[in-house]
């Protein structure tokens, strides 16, 4: 348990500065969801979070990755998550931007250097009336008991804000590599 937002991690007795900017964490998310090999993902995440210093110390990679994942999870334990997410950081960027402005007065969140954990706290604290949460509500709304016109209206709403499926035509080798990576991460 952390008392403050972490700025450093220790691996094999050596202190490493974390690049805590939320935009870096979002890039780590992109890498995690990419079609590159397991090793490339690991090295990219280490580089993004710790720079050349982390990348140049291969003996510390395992600990740096483990602590980097804990950092990206905001110090919380991994929980099982739905296969279908109601939000995508990239596709919902404009909703996030608008919601941070309306709820917190932050004019353009993407022009700030906010700590990843603060960003997540703000994101989780958005009001139910902000545009992002209204969109997520529509995406998550269960229509199984609806019929007729009401069902058609909800289907139109859902379609208008649906997340686009990312085109991931990974090779079988890449898929196996990704599966190994996810297991390593415990996801």
Unreliable stretches, pLDDT < 50, 5 or more residues?
A: none
Cα end-to-end separation: 20 Å
Global Rg: 19 Å
Strand content: under 5%
Assign an overall shape: elongated
Following the backbone from N to C, one meets helices and strands in this order, namely EEHHHHHHHH
What level of helicity do the residues show?
40-55%
| Tally of strands | 2
Q: Work out the helix count.
A: 8
Any idea how many domains? 2
Strand order of the largest sheet: 1-2
| Main beta-sheet annotation | 2 strands, antiparallel
Overall SS class: mainly alpha
Average pLDDT level: 88
Folded structure, characterized:
- With 187 residues, the protein is mainly alpha-helical.
- The chain folds into two domains: 8-81 and 171-185, no CATH class; 93-161, no CATH class.
- The protein contains eight helices and two strands, in the order ββαααααααα.
- It has a two-stranded antiparallel sheet.
- The longest helix has 18 residues, at 38-55.
Kindly list the characteristics that best describe this protein.
187 residues; mainly alpha; 2 domains; two-stranded antiparallel ribbon; 8 helices; 53% helix
Quickly describe the structure.
The protein has 8 helices and 2 strands, in the order ββαααααααα.
Secondary structure topology:
Layout: E1 8-11, E2 14-17, H1 22-32, H2 38-55, H3 61-72, H4 93-104, H5 116-124, H6 131-140, H7 148-161, H8 172-185
Helix pairs in contact: 1-2, 1-5, 2-3, 2-8, 4-6
């Amino acid at each position: 348990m952390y008392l403050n937002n972490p700025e450093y991690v220790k691996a094999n007795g050596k202190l490493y500065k974390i690049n805590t900017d939320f935009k870096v964490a979002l890039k780590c998310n992109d890498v995690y969801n990419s079609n590159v090999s397991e090793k490339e993902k690991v090295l990219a995440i280490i580089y993004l979070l710790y720079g050349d210093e982390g990348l140049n110390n291969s003996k510390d990679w395992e600990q740096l990755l483990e602590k980097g994942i804990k950092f990206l999870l905001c110090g919380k334990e991994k929980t099982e998550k739905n296969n279908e997410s109601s939000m995508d950081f990239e596709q919902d960027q404009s909703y996030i931007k608008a919601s941070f402005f309306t709820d917190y007065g932050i004019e353009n969140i993407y022009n700030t250097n906010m700590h990843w954990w603060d960003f997540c706290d703000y994101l989780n604290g958005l009001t139910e009336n902000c545009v992002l949460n209204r969109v997520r509500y529509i995406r998550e709304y269960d229509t199984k008991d609806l019929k007729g016109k009401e069902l058609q209206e909800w289907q139109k709403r859902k379609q208008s804000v649906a997340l686009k499926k990312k085109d991931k035509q990974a090779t079988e080798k890449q898929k196996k590599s990704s599966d190994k990576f996810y297991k390593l991460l415990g996801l």
